[in-house]
Amino acid sequence: MAIRVGLFGFGKTGRAVATTLLSSSETRLDWVARRSTRLDHRSVPEFLGIESEESGTILSVAPETIGPLLDEHPVDVIVDFSSREGLEVYGDAAAERGIAIVSAISDYEAHHIQHLDALAERTAVLWSPNITVGINFLILAAKLLRKVCPSLDVEIIEEHFRAKPEVSGTAKVIARELGTASEGIKSIRAGGIIGRHEILFGFPYQTVRLVHESISREAFGNGAIFATLNLFGRAAGRYTMEDLLRPYLSEPA
Predict the structure, then answer these.
(1) Is the confidence at residue 51, as pLDDT, over 70?
(2) Separation of alpha carbons 107 and 127, rounded Å
(3) Is 15 left (phi over 0), alpha (psi -120 to 50) or beta?
(4) N or C, which end of the chain is more exposed by having fewer CB within 10 Å?
(5) pLDDT-derived band of residue 54, with 50, 70 and 90 as boundaries?
(6) Do β-strands 100-103 and 77-80 pair in parallel, antiparallel, or remain unpaired?
(7) pTM, two decimal places
């Protein structure tokens, strides 16, 4: 039986995620929540111009209406690609109903993270600033190499579209996970690059480069599906993508 999903966020990335969710037989996109009423009650498949038997509907939501929405349109998992303020809208109402939360918000502040921890006492919560499976596997592999050879030189290079002003949040996560200074991250801005991250390990007589490149925003949808399938049914607690990936690495061939 497909896992019922409610999606917060319907910008460029949110629409790509919605498209991916609709194409999966393992998930069912029941609704997309937006603060604006402009697209209220439109069909998601119709709006995106894709064929689907799912009846995903665009619904307007506010803090005072989220409870009734979740009761009238129950889901198993909420996937959040909106903004850091979205958590304040749905978080407590979702936790009260035991709805798992998958957040892909990249720029939470300290009090948002504390809120996630509080919600995780009541339901399963996953927060990943970059939810693509590839980038999280890259981080896991890099941490392993760092553990094997802790004295290696490490350089982190991130490339994004020309208009992106700040250093990539994902690059900062990589730096933190590898124990290196985020000030040393090399940034490249050019054209319409969606996202490329490279970790360069310098040995005395060899070099190892780990690279992840997002070709399209649907990659975030693939990650959201992976997170949904592997988080749903877990006990209350706060999880990472690494937590969900590790069991696959220990399984026998």
Answers:
(1) yes
(2) 11
(3) alpha
(4) C
(5) confident
(6) parallel
(7) 0.90
Burial 121-144 (b: 16+ CB within 10 A, else e): ebbbbbbbbbbbbbbbbbbeebee
CATH 3.40.50.720, domain 3-131+218-250, yes or no: yes
Q: Which of 73, 143, 164, 172 is catalytic?
A: 164
Helices (H), the chain: 12-23, 44-48, 66-72, 86-96, 110-119, 133-148, 169-178, 218-231, 241-250
Query: What residues pair up with 57 in beta bridges, in sequence order?
Result: 31, 43
- Tell the CATH topology of 133-214: Dihydrodipicolinate Reductase; domain 2 (3.30.360)
What is the spatial order of strands in the sheet that 124-127 belongs to? 57-60, 27-34, 3-8, 77-80, 100-103, 124-127, 237-239
- Cβ atoms 31, 73 nearer than 8 A: yes
Instruction: Name the catalytic one among 12, 111, 143, 160.
Output: 160
Domain locations along the chain = 3-131+218-250, 133-214
DSSP of 48-101: HT---S---EEEE--TTTHHHHHHHS--SEEEE-S-TTHHHHHHHHHHHTT-EE
Q: What is the mean pLDDT of residues 140-154?
A: 95
Rg, C-alpha atoms of the chain: 19
Name 24's bridge partners.
Answer: none
The question of whether 172 is a catalytic residue gets the answer no
